[in-house]
Amino acid sequence: MADSPRYIDVDRLMQEVSVEQVAAFYGIVLPELQRRGDEIRAKCFLACGFGEPTGNRALAINAADPAKKWKCHQYGCGKGGNLVSLCDLIRPGENAGGRPRGERFKEIARDLLAMAGRAPVLRSPADAVQALAHEASAAPAAAKEPERDAVAARPETLINLPLAQSPIDKARALVTLDEKFVRDVAAMPPAGSRYVRSRPFLSSEVQTKWRMGYLPRGKAGSDQSGGTMRGRVVYPMLSERGEVLTWFGRDPEFEEKYEAWVAAGKRDREPEKFHFVKGFHRGLELFGQHWSRLKEPAFRESLQEFGLIVVEGPNDVIRLDTLGAPAVGLCSNTATAEQVAKIARFAKSVAGNRVTLMLDLDAAGEAGTQQALFELAKLDVNVRLGWPVGAMGEALTARQPEEISDNEWTILRRELSCSAR
Questions:
Q1: Which domains does the chain have, with CATH numbers?
Q2: Do the Cβ atoms of 37 and 86 come closer than 8 Å?
Q3: Listing from the earlier edge strand, what are the strands of the sheet with 213-215?
Q4: 133 falls in which pLDDT band (50, 70, 90)?
C-alpha cells in the first residue's frame, strides 16, 4: 500500500462528506433525522459526556455549511463544532471532547479521506471484534493490527460478528471468558458482593445459566484476559442462535460514583454504568434473544398469556425469567428501528403477535415506552403496558422489573392475564 499523502485537505473533505457517511463508516445507527431546508435536527447521538437523554430535535446540524457545523440545544449542554469534532465524538477510542489533536486528528483525517472514496479502507473503526480484542489485551501497548483486505469492501448492512468467527485470535479466545467469572458472593470483593446480594434472584445457578458473573481484576503478572471488563459484573450478548457476540460489564460501584459526580456539580464525564466495547452495535440486538430460550416449553403458556415482555436491562430479563416470564432487553430506555423490527418478528413468531412493554417507571422509561408503543403499533403488533394502572398503587412508583417480588408478580400476572382476555 502506498503511503498516504503528507497533507490532507480536511476543509475540503468536510465539504464532500455527509453526516450519513460518517455514521455509516463508524457503525452508528442514527436516530430519526428531521430535515427542514438545509438544517438537520435529531436526538443527540454523540458521546460528548452530557450523559442524559435529549429531545428528538436537540442536535442541529447545518448540512449546507462547508464544515457541517452543529450545535446541541439540550438544556445544560450547548456543545458545538464541525464535522471533525463530530467524528471525534463518535469514533471508537478515547475521544478528545470534540477537539482532536495529534494522532487522533490524523486518524480522523485519514477516515474522512476514506469516506470520500479517496483512500483504501484497510480497517473499519466500527469492527466490533477487532475492538473487543484490543480492549481485552493485557499488553501495555496495543499490538499491530493485521491488515484484512476483506474489510476494504465494507458491507452497507451492519452486523455483529460472533466472537468464534473472528479472524483475531484474542477475540476468539474470549468466547469462554465466563470460565473466569466468580459467582460465589463470599469470594467477591465488597462492591461485587453487595451488587449480587442486593439481587437475591442472582443465585450462582442463575448466574451460571446466563453465563454471567463477576470478573476479578487479577494481580499484576496474572492472566488479564477480559481487559476493560475486569472489576465488573459481566453479561454475554448472545445472537439469536446462542453465539457469543460480545461481553458487556456493569460497574458495581456505579451508584456511589454517580452520587459523587452529582455532588461535585456534574463536572467531567458522567460515570459509566454499563460498559460496551466500542464498535459493537448494541442497537441491533436484544438481551435474551436466543431462540433456544424463547422456544422453551415452559414459556409457551406465558407467551400465549401475555405475549413477549420488553424491558430495559439484563437484570430485568433475568428476574422475569426466574418468575417464568419471557422477556427481552433493549439495554437502553429507547428502542432502535432494528430492535423494534426484531421484537415484532419475535411476537408474530412465538407470542401470538402480542407485546407487553415493561420499561422502568421513571421519566426516561415512560418516554421510551411511548416511543416503542408507537413504533410497534405501526407494525400491527398488539401492544400493551406491563404496569397496570391502579393494580398496586404506590407500590409501583419508580420501580424496575428486577425489583419485583414474588408476591408482586402474582398480582401483576393476574392483571396482565385479565387484560389479555
A1: 10-126 (no CATH), 169-279 (3.90.980), 291-420 (3.40.1360.10)
A2: no
A3: 213-215, 232-238, 244-250, 274-275
A4: low
Q: Coil, strand or helix: which one is 252? A: coil
Residue 317's φ and ψ, nearest 5 degrees, are -60, -45
Looking at the DSSP bridge assignments, the partners of residue 206 are none
Cα separation, 247 vs 262, in Å, equals 29
Confidence check: pLDDT of 343 > 90: yes
pTM assigned to the model: 0.64
Please choose, from the candidates 331, 322, 328, the residue with its C-alpha nearest in 3D space to the C-alpha of residue 310.
Answer: 328
CB neighbours (10 Å) of residue 310?
29
Could you tell me which of 211, 293, 207 has the C-alpha nearest to residue 246?
211
Are 344 and 376 in contact, with CB atoms under 8 Å apart?
A: yes
**Residue 164 exposure: Cα atoms within 13 Å on the Cβ side:** 8
- C-alpha to C-alpha distance for 25 and 17, rounded to whole angstroms: 11
Dihedral pair phi/psi, residue 174, rounded to 5°: -85, -5
* Model confidence pLDDT, tens digit, residues 302-325: 888 888 999 999 999 999 999 999
Smallest Cα–Cα separation from 335: which of 370, 306, 363, 288?
370
* 3-class SS shares of the chain: helix, strand, coil, % to 5: 40, 10, 45
Q: Can you tell me the mean pLDDT for 326-335?
A: 92
- Are the C-beta atoms of residues 287 and 270 closer than 8 Å to each other? no
Q: Are strands 213-215 and 34-36 parallel, antiparallel or unpaired?
A: unpaired
Question: Largest Cα–Cα distance of the chain, in whole Å?
Answer: 70
For residue 342, how many other CB atoms are within 10 A of its CB? 18
Burial of 296 (C-beta count, 10 Å sphere; 0-12/13-18/19+): middle
Give the C-alpha distances (Å, rounded to integers) separating 164 from 174, 176, 243, 271, 325. 8, 10, 8, 31, 30
Cα distances from 405 to residues 207, 241, 277, 311, 385, in angstroms, run 19, 31, 33, 16, 19
Task: Compute the average pLDDT of residues 195-215.
Answer: 97
